[in-house]
Input
Amino acid sequence: MRALFLGLLACSWVGVLHAQLVSPSMLHHGPLLTQITLEGAGGSEVYHIYSVTYATAWSREFCVMAASASANGFRLNVLGEGRQANFDQDRFLDKLWALRDFVAGVQSATPEGMRNRTLVLFSDGYDVLVNSNPKTLVKRFVNQKKKILFGAEKGCSGAREYMAFKDNRCDPNWPCDMYTTTPFLNSSIFLGFVTEVEYLLRISRSEYDSYLGKLKSDYGPIQPLHLTPATSKGPWDPYMIGGDQQLICQLFAHEVVRGGQSLRSAI
Amino acid sequence: MSLDYESQIFVNAYQMEIGREIVITAKGRVRYDVNLADCDKWDEARLRAECRQRSVRRVRSATLPVILHFNGPQKQNMLAVASQMRWPDALDTAALWESEMYSVSSGARMALKDACAPYMPELACGGTVGECLARSARDA
Output
């Protein structure tokens, strides 16, 4: 009985100490991050990774993806819950708009000195498997010395000028400076430093608004998606048709944004 | 801003058939058996040669990419690959489903086992996640 009493006393003290050190808000709120320490010649460096995905509902495929992420040591932040109406309205562009708000929040919460070691990893929610751990991810990314890295794929990207008239031919001006079997960008998986990712997402919105404005002024009102070239002259919203993929490919391939440099070179 | 041309981190399966052009081993290594004729699309001989060189390198050296993306028609192969990949053993699997994710919209953290409750009988059957997926595919 005495042992039981002492045990309960000890537990209550631990409970008090725990309550003082960790408030309920720290336990149940705020994005999850994974901390990685890389050892190098110049000492150790700590990196933070925010792993983010987008899903409006939890499906079997989502759960397998989430389990594979957790099994490998990633802590997952999910955008999209409660955003079905946004998705219905903006389709795949809603991934970018939701991610932009999340990344802006992460950036402002990250101390200036830590931003060049804070990474955002984005992946789609329903057709992805995580196959290795965060340390491998950070090591390989740091070795590549890039600010943002996208997945490469074999399927070509369209061009906004064609897509605006429902013509999905490949972009004839895609920057083919790498001669590979996978020369094209896939926007569904990427990794980058928080500052650059925030910048990319911010100018994604600017490109969307400005190009839609230009289309309207040059060709008239944007046509509903269900109309076809047989029944309408257009224009259509190329980014609503091609989604985040079309918008990010446009920025990667064409937009000049900083001091005469393409965005691709600038960030 | 660049692309992961050598698939050190990411693999996108779009227009590349799993099991034929992209071979994923049980240990998660990815090997490409790409059709080198794809390189013929480059007009200049120099570019064709460089493309072939890169393709050969990818065929020879398997990578262990961090993220596999089964986009396009390859979506249908995702669960089959998941059933064959290496997963923590059954004991760790119990802990795995206790791990939390954060829903940005609601500002709440939730355990995977709660978010995935409808699928738990199928995905947490007492074996590893891979074994459970294989079992449910057999039973389907």
